[in-house]
Amino acid sequence: MTLLPWLVIAALIAVTALYVAAEFAAVASQRSQLDQLARAGQRRATRLLALLEHDVQFDRFIAACQIGITLSSLLAGAYGQATIAPELAPLLARAFTLEPLTADSAAAVVVLLVLTTLQVVLGELAPKSLALQFPERTALATFLPMRVSMTLYAGFIWLLNGSGLLLLKPFGIKVASHLHVHSPEELDLLFAESQRGGSLSPESLRSLQRGLHLSTRKVRQLMVPRRDIVAIEASTPPEEILRRVVESAYSRLPVYERTLDRVIGAIDTKDLVGLYAARGQVPPLSKLLHPIPFVPADLSADQLVRFLQEQRSSKAIVVDEYGGVHGIVSIEDVLGQLFGDIGDELKEPDLAAEPMPDGRVRLPGSMPLDVAEPWLGTRWEGPAATVGGHIVNSLGHLPSAGDCVVVDGIETTILEMSPMAVLWVLVQPRPSHAANTNTGHEEEDG
Questions:
Q1: What pLDDT is stored for residue 282 in this prediction?
Q2: pLDDT digits over 225-276, tens only?
Q3: How many domains does the chain have?
Q4: By the 8 A CB rule, do 135 and 24 touch?
Q5: What is the pLDDT of residues 280-328, one digit of tens each?
């Protein structure tokens, strides 16, 4: 058996590997990495980036890869059957005492199996792994051969792409870009895998996950509820205004007329204290008022950030569908979703969960449902945004202190009530999650 056929087949398999590597590298390459190389003056990176960002050219690039893979695979198979199988058949006939026709068939099957194995391992799996591990380097290395291939296969590409479009048109299917856009769920998995691989710290993972799902958070889930708003009535006596400002932990306080539903602006406590220190008296609130914007309760968190930027404001009054004041929200509330609680300069930290010796957990009624999830061992879902609100919504009425109820399978004891809200509850987490409660708490604190 001569060596030349195997050399030809090796060359064809190498061609297949080239196209496979080029295709996977082009799809997996980070455009930001190529952009950095292009900015550094690498001409090949500039040309490759221009091709990848042009939908039509990129489609032709992928088509050239697929044509090249198909042609080289077919040629390898046909050449192997024409050259190696005839030489192998007599050897099999002598070794296993086979009839000539049987030996020819056996030789064809053996060559097919061997070539298929070599094509899969050397022509596809190995170059694919290499391309996915070093996508930018592989894409740059294969760029020039692919440019030549796109020119050589131009007629095939036009014919095959046109045929594909004609076949898909009756079904109303449009050809999409080959670029893979990750869904939020896929990105979440990629973040988790990066953290498990050591590329991300647990804190960075949590921040990325929070940022990823920021658009799903509504203002009503972030705001300080109406009952907790610290505000000043416009006709409040100066002494009372000064006392309220000194006792307040906030830098800006809303001002309203007669009822909280008629907010007319906000004052900067620093301005008021500065003027009082300079003049010895509290100036009229009307001279200190700054406009404060209003936002609907169902506005998403990312839209809120853009709105506050446009308004050049750090806070906004949240209104319900009837125009009544529902709460107040600040940019710190949004940042708290990404990095944990930040709060105002002197703001006391939010009430936290408290694990009890018997395995139960004491939760504040104002705790957001997503923060409470690790403590409950399950996700409470509904129109309410807080633990207390969800309990009231599930029961259909305000409970009383001391009531023991079951909410979505969780045994819950009402510890403390205000006239209109649940202040503290005691919950029994799901058994499968109770053992992990302390661990989850430590991670949240991190």
A1: 82
A2: 888 888 999 989 988 888 888 888 788 899 999 999 999 999 988 888 888 8
A3: 4
A4: yes
A5: 888 888 888 999 999 999 898 888 988 998 988 889 999 988 889 999 9
As given in the structure block, the two tokens for residue 204 are 């960075």
Q: DSSP class of residue 402? A: T
Closest by CA to 265, choosing from 241, 283, 289, 242, is 289
Output the CA–CA distances (angstroms, integers) from residue 7 to 22, 73, 108, 125, 338, in the order listed: 23, 15, 19, 20, 58
**Phi and psi of 189, rounded to 5°?**
-65, -40
Q: Is-contact 94 31, C-beta < 8 A?
A: no
Residue 175 confidence class, pLDDT cut points 50, 70, 90: low
10-14 own/partner pairs: CB under 8 Å, 24+ apart: 12/72, 12/73, 12/75, 12/76, 12/79, 13/72, 13/76, 13/118, 13/119, 13/122, 13/123, 14/123
Assess contact for 269 and 252: CB atoms under 8 A.
Answer: yes
- What is the Cα–Cα distance from 423 to 362, expressed in whole angstroms? 11
Q: Closest Cα to residue 75, out of 124, 14, 156, 159?
A: 14
Radius of gyration of the chain (CA): 34
60 and 137 fall within a common domain: yes
CATH classification of the domain holding 411: 3.30.465.10
Render pLDDT for 9-35 as a digit per residue (tens, 0 to 9). Answer: 999 999 999 999 999 999 888 888 898
Q: Among the three residues 142, 171, 200, which one is the final residue of a domain in this structure?
A: 171
Report whether 214 contacts 337 (CB < 8 A).
Answer: yes
H or E segment and range at residue 251: none
Q: Tell me what pLDDT residue 138 has.
A: 96
| 78 CB neighbour count, 10 Å cutoff | 11
Cα distance between residue 221 and residue 223, in whole Å: 6
Residues 6+ apart with CB under 8 A from 194: 200, 205
Range of the domain at 201: 184-212
Q: In this structure, are residues 411 and 428 in contact, taking their beta carbons and an 8 Å threshold?
A: yes
